[in-house]
Design a protein that fits this description.
The complex is a heterodimer of chains A (287) and B (334).
Chain A (H helix, E strand, L loop, with lengths): L16 E5 L6 H8 L11 E2 L2 E2 L5 H5 L2 E4 L13 H6 L9 H14 L16 H13 L5 E5 L7 H18 L2 E6 L2 H7 L2 E6 L2 E7 H6 L4 H9 L36 H5 L5 E3 L2 E3 L6
Parallel strand pairs in A: 1-6, 1-7, 4-5, 5-6
Antiparallel strand pairs in A: 2-3, 7-8, 8-10, 9-10
Helix pairs in contact in A: 4-5, 5-6
Chain B lengths: L8 E14 L2 E14 L3 E5 L6 H8 L7 E10 L2 E2 L5 H10 L1 E4 L13 H16 L5 H14 L5 H4 L9 H14 L4 E5 L7 H17 L3 E6 L2 H7 L2 E6 L2 E7 H6 L4 H8 L39 H5 L5 E3 L2 E3 L10
Parallel strand pairs in B: 3-8, 3-9, 6-7, 7-8
Antiparallel strand pairs in B: 1-2, 1-4, 4-5, 9-10, 10-12, 11-12
Helix pairs in contact in B: 3-4, 3-6, 4-6
Classes of the chains: A alpha/beta (287), B alpha/beta (334).
């Protein structure tokens, strides 16, 4: 048994962009899949607008959630036309043909593609264009929440900036709520209002993006920020060691073997998140 | 770090051109590339995918596919013309003069051989090359020493493992250690950290910079990430559609980019320390290299495009110690 995500409490507010940041294997995608109702939790509940998610209301809630995946070269059916791809989420919603046609024209326009793309297939499109199609597919059914799982990490820098700008525009226009999963903390800073930092299946720090970025509290967040190469400094100060295997976790705080501030208690007991200013931090340094 | 002005040149390209023969016709992959790498310095090639930065790396160690040809100019590696080396010279050059490491560490090592077997292979081949006898015990010791050099914790145990028992970061360290065993003058690293996590990437970047100094080795670092490039290199070559559009000291290029493409590339990257509002984008897409546009290859996307840019290709000019290929900076129709 692997506890991929453990003892996690999160809230997503309507209309906010929440970034989920962490390294590979930290459980961020598992958490997103849980929220998107693609996995069932072993323990705990997911509430949607105050209602508990059950098998009965699953289909109702799914109408409100859409996803955009990382790799647009794999997430689009290569044999389907753009129109077929974009209208697929509407199949269960009972839209009429004319409504679908109008819908496709509208969303393609919104994501910055001309209407003549509707008859093309993914093979004719560049990576950036494909990701625009994936975004169009996600917003055509006017969902409330869009999960974006590393939507720009397969794209070149200049194309990534186009897609990020587009996502912000769409969010402002339709009051969308985003859960934005990324390993790139600079991208998270650019797009999000709030940030969750995950490490080895747990949320170690969460709070308003500005605060997390300007004064990170958890030693892991601090180390993560010092690891990001930037044009402002040539220095990087990465933490030593590597992420523990989830099958063989260290006792106590999961970060303690790499933490420069590790104390006795860190090796014994796993800290629970505590309020520190506007943030929640799971660290024994803040009591 | 300042650019070493004097010193031995390890690699120089003069007006280098590389063509690919394809079923659709000849594709001009690299065009008029001029650059040099001096002993002990690190240079990065930066650009979007398809700008042929990897082609330039592969051309240096003559690992280009069979349909490629060195169609113009010269590429000199440690005093020898790469295009006209004999096959025997190429074999002895690879590893001992220039060593290449690739993006995906999992595909670099042999999955059915232990790390020690693979590292000893490198030492054996070096012994053959230097015509000295090979002592397995000594070699084993040297291999462990090199793993220590790449800051590998517990090298005696790591060396007895198979690649699948190591993490991505550990494998990349093993590969770098194998490179060091060959004592190369130039290490070419093609996106060596792109498959790694941020914290592990930072560890590898730090390590490469330390090794560059300890071994007085030149490094060519190929990356799409201008942040990583700035972090690792002394000088930076920004590439676009098979051409080097700007080449100069890394700090100068990132702080005061001359070419419109470099400027846009820098502004399009989200920063960890700055509020940006909206990101700068570059409209359009890179050209199809089978049929590149007339004139400057960037003119279809350039915000400062002038009439001449559409007709003629700008020559490289030197400005403030940098090389730049743009009519805005006095490029001529050479």
């Amino acid at each position: 048994m692997v506890k991929a995500v453990d003892d996690v409490n999160i809230k997503i507010q309507e209309g906010e962009v929440l970034a989920l940041v962490g390294e590979s294997g930290c459980g961020k995608t598992t958490l997103a899949r849980l929220i998107a109702t693609l996995e069932t939790p072993t323990a705990g509940d997911i509430l949607y607008s105050g209602k508990k998610l059950t098998k009965k209301n699953l289909n109702e809630i799914r109408k409100e959630i859409q996803m955009v995946f990382q790799n647009p070269f794999e997430s689009l059916d290569p044999r389907a036309t753009v129109k077929a791809i974009v209208t697929e989420p509407l199949q269960k919603l009972g839209w009429r043909k004319s409504q679908k046609n109008e819908g496709v024209e509208k969303v393609l326009n919104l994501v910055g593609l001309e209407y003549n793309f509707a008859e093309r297939r993914p093979g004719d499109l560049s990576g950036g264009q494909r990701q625009r199609v994936a975004v169009a597919r996600a917003i055509i059914s006017t969902p409330k929440i869009v999960m974006l799982d590393e939507p720009t990490s397969a794209l070149d820098a200049s194309v990534q900036s186009q897609v990020l700008n587009l996502l912000l525009d769409l969010r402002n226009e339709f009051k969308l709520t985003y859960l934005f999963i990324t390993h790139n903390i600079a991208v998270a800073r650019f797009i999000s209002d709030r940030m969750l930092i995950m490490y080895a299946g747990e949320i170690v720090e969460s709070g308003p993006t500005k605060q997390v970025m300007s004064a990170p509290k958890h030693p892991y967040t601090q180390a993560l920020l010092k690891s990001v190469p930037s044009l402002d400094t040539k220095e990087v100060a990465p933490p030593t060691g590597e992420v523990p295997s989830l099958v063989n976790l260290p006792p106590g705080c999961r970060y303690n073997p790499r933490c420069p501030f590790a104390m006795d208690i860190c090796r014994k007991e796993d800290p629970k998140p505590r309020k520190v200013e506007d943030e929640d931090v799971a660290c024994w340094l803040y009591k | 770090m300042s650019t070493p002005d004097t010193g031995e040149t390890i690699l120089s390209a003069e007006n280098l051109a590389i063509d690919y023969r394809t079923v659709y016709g000849t594709l001009s992959a690299l065009n008029g590339v001029n650059l040099s790498v001096v002993k002990g310095e690190s240079v990065s090639f930066v650009g979007d995918s398809g700008c042929r930065k990897s082609t330039l790396g592969l051309a240096t160690v003559r690992l280009l596919p069979l349909n490629a040809s060195y169609s113009g100019g010269r590429l000199m590696l440690d005093g020898k013309n790469v295009a006209t080396m004999s096959n025997r010279e190429v074999v002895s050059m690879r590893g001992s003069t220039a060593f290449m490491i690739f993006q995906d560490p999992l595909n670099t090592l042999n999955p059915v051989k232990r790390v020690d077997a693979q590292m000893l292979e490198a030492i054996r081949s070096r012994a053959r090359h230097e015509r000295v006898s090979f002592n397995e015990k000594e070699a084993q010791k040297e291999a462990v020493g090199k793993l220590e050099d790449v800051r590998m914790p517990d090298p005696e145990s790591i060396i007895t493992r198979y690649p699948h028992q190591l993490s991505g970061g550990q494998i990349q360290r093993v590969v770098i250690a194998m490179g060091l065993l060959m004592r190369p003058k130039l290490m070419i690293a093609d996106e060596p950290t792109s498959a790694l996590d941020v914290t592990v990437q930072a560890q590898v970047l730090k390590l490469l910079r330390e090794l560059q100094r300890e071994y007085n080795m030149s490094i060519i670092f190929i990356t799409h990430d201008i942040n990583v490039a700035y972090n690792i290199c002394d000088r930076m070559a920004v590439m676009y559609a098979g051409e080097v559009v700007e080449y100069g000291e890394a700090g100068k290029v990132t702080r005061n980019a001359l070419h419109p493409y470099s400027q846009a590339l820098i502004k399009s990257v989200p920063r960890t320390t700055k509020d940006q509002g909206r990101l700068t984008t570059i409209s359009g897409a890179p050209p199809n290299m089978l049929n590149p546009p007339d004139g400057c290859r960037f003119h279809t996307r350039c915000p400062y495009v002038m009439d001449i840019c559409k007709l003629k290709s700008p020559s490289e000019v030197e400005k403030d110690g940098e090389l730049v290929r743009c009519f805005l900076h006095g490029g001529t129709t050479g």
